[in-house]
């Protein structure tokens, strides 16, 4: 037996407690190293030789040193991460603050975990999914702004009212025909859609919240979406129809 083996206890609860204690010490050491690296770098205590000092004096490349610093800056005030390794800590530190403590669904397994329960691979999966969701939201916002600008531009234009002369009209000889009433209502529809988008456009940015709606709200929203789809489909069909497809009523 070696000296180290002789010094170890044979009591499992004691060994368990000792392992957990050393894990905490190791975790706390990451933050303490990061704080000191940050201090050296910010105060330029190595006089412009940061990369050289990291490599030659402490045996650490610059990228790794920067990870220690990022972890200390982002998570140093939170005491729940002291039993996690540097790689996982760095992945957590580079999550948005609001995403660090809530549960996330792992894309590859469907399991729900908080970041401190995830492996490095799971953290990277979740980060990629969050990035994709953020990009979809940004695109949706961009599309919404384009539609809003178009609607506002149309709203600023004066209504295009046309009059036709009707022989033997019972009232004013300048009578507004059914076709012209349709033209006028396009302007009203444009304004109404613009108002709806301005008031409720935020729905398209909240995928998770929409998925968490109550059953009654989901059914009601589904009914609304279906009605809107039918309405827009009918209008698209009319816009794309040829003269031969139009049925006179």
- Rg, rounded, reads 32 Å
Tally of extended strands? 4
Number of helices: 9
Strand order of the largest sheet: 1-2
Poorly predicted sequence stretches spanning 5 or more consecutive residues:
161-166
Q: Major sheet: size, sense and barrel closure?
A: 2 strands, antiparallel
The portion of residues assigned to helices is: 55-70%
- Quote the average pLDDT: 81
Q: Could you spell the SSE succession in H and E letters?
A: HHHHHEEHEEHHH
Index terms:
249 residues; two-stranded antiparallel ribbon; mainly alpha; 9 helices
Overall description:
The structure is a single chain. This protein has 249 residues and is mainly α. The strands form two sheets. It has a two-stranded antiparallel sheet. A two-stranded antiparallel sheet has the order 3-4. It is built from nine helices and four strands, in the order H-H-H-H-H-E-E-H-E-E-H-H-H. Helix 4 (62-75) packs across helix 5, helix 5 (86-93) runs parallel beside helix 6 and helix 6 (120-156) runs antiparallel to helix 7. The radius of gyration is 32 Å and the shape is elongated. The longest helix is centred in the middle third of the chain and has 37 residues, at 120-156. It has helices spanning 3-7, 12-42, 50-57, 62-75, 86-93, 120-156, 178-200, 207-211, 215-240, and strands spanning 104-105, 112-113, 164-165, 174-175. A hairpin with an 8-residue loop joins strand 3 and strand 4 (174-175). The termini are far apart.
Task: Characterize this entry briefly.
By secondary structure, the protein is mostly helical. It has helices at 3-7, 12-42, 50-57, 62-75, 86-93, 120-156, 178-200, 207-211, 215-240; strands at residues 104-105, 112-113, 164-165, 174-175. 63% of the residues lie in helices and 3% in strands.
């Amino acid at each position: 037996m070696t000296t180290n083996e002789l010094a170890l206890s044979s009591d499992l609860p004691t060994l368990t407690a000792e392992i957990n204690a050393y894990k905490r010490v190791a975790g706390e050491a990451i933050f303490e190293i990061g704080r000191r690296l940050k201090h050296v770098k910010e105060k330029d205590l190595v006089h412009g030789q940061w990369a050289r000092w990291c490599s030659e004096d402490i045996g650490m490349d610059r990228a790794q040193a920067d990870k220690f610093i990022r972890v200390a800056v982002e998570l140093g005030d939170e005491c729940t991460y002291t039993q996690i390794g540097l790689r996982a800590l760095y992945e957590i530190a580079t999550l948005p603050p609001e995403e660090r403590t809530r549960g996330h669904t792992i894309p590859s397994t469907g399991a729900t975990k908080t970041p401190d329960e995830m492996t490095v691979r799971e953290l990277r999966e979740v980060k990629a999914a969050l990035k994709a969701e953020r990009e979809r939201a940004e695109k949706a916002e961009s599309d919404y702004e384009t539609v809003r600008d178009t609607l506002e531009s149309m709203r600023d234009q004066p209504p295009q009212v046309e009059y036709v002369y009707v022989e033997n009209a019972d009232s004013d000889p300048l009578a507004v025909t059914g076709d012209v009433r349709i033209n006028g209502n396009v302007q009203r529809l444009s304004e109404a859609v613009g108002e709806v988008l301005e008031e409720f456009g935020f729905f398209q940015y909240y995928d998770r919240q929409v998925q968490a709606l109550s059953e009654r709200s989901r059914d009601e929203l589904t009914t609304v979406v279906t009605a809107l789809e039918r309405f827009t489909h009918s209008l698209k069909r009319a816009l794309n129809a040829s003269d031969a497809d139009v049925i006179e009523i």
